[in-house]
Specification:
It is built from six helices and ten strands, in the order βββαββαβαααβαβββ. It has 221 residues and is α/β, with parallel strands linked by helices. Strands 6-7-8-3-9-10 form a six-stranded mixed beta sheet, sandwiched between helices. It has a four-stranded antiparallel beta sheet with strand order 2-1-4-5, covered by helices on one side. It is globular, with a radius of gyration of 17 Å. The structure holds adenosine-5'-diphosphate and magnesium ion.
Amino acid sequence: MDKILHIENLGKTYVQGHERILVLENIDFDIKAGEFVALLGPSGSGKSTFLNLVGVLDDCYSGSITLFGSRLEPLSEVKKAELRRRNIGFVFQFDSLLPEFTVLENIDMPALIMGRGDTGAAMALLKRFGLEMIAHKFPMDISGGEKQRAAILRALRNKPGLVIADEPTGNLDKHNAKIVLDDLKKVNAAGAAVLMVTHNEEASAYADRVFHLSGGRITAG
Ligand SMILES: Nc1ncnc2c1ncn2[C@@H]1O[C@H](COP(=O)(O)OP(=O)(O)O)[C@@H](O)[C@H]1O
Ligand SMILES: [Mg+2]
């Protein structure tokens, strides 16, 4: 399969009381298997809104989204959730690890939810990224950079074809941001497509293609 994401004429409007906020309009967009795509845009331009739609976290939109060969609109909630769990890994800007579980348990969580938990496989991921020393620590006992790196490994746990990262370096200093970006590059080199939203112009140096979101539209370059 070549295209893993195909979007046609995507639109999104938030309704708040009597107010309608048009955030995305007329967007056509594709991602091919194995690509690293960066999306830049000012705060409030709709980047997270876009990622939530692509990541099947929000199903209120106009237009059509096809993910891994399945058009989303006719699918039931259950089918959509399954498609998401099987194919998509998420990395968020803010710390999203569960505080009452160790790093190892957090990383294994997506597999556990699918009924195939295996901390051995989670440990293998930690080793692959040179992070086995934090396996048995709790989130409150590791650094911000380590938290994001653990979140990336959690996103990889079900071997997704697409990793969606929403400003994964937004809360990190330069040094840690580079480590996290290098991890994402490694994820990509291992075969997963990456769709990353960032404020950081430098981060686009990691991407095969760069897009800008503003005024509700996505433009290349
Ligand atoms: N749940 C919501 N209800 C109403 N408006 C929202 C909601 N989420 C986001 N918005 C608005 O949509 C616009 C885009 O937000 P967002 O996608 O978070 O932008 P970005 O991630 O680029 O900073 C903003 O004007 C924001 O206030
Ligand atoms: Mg955002």
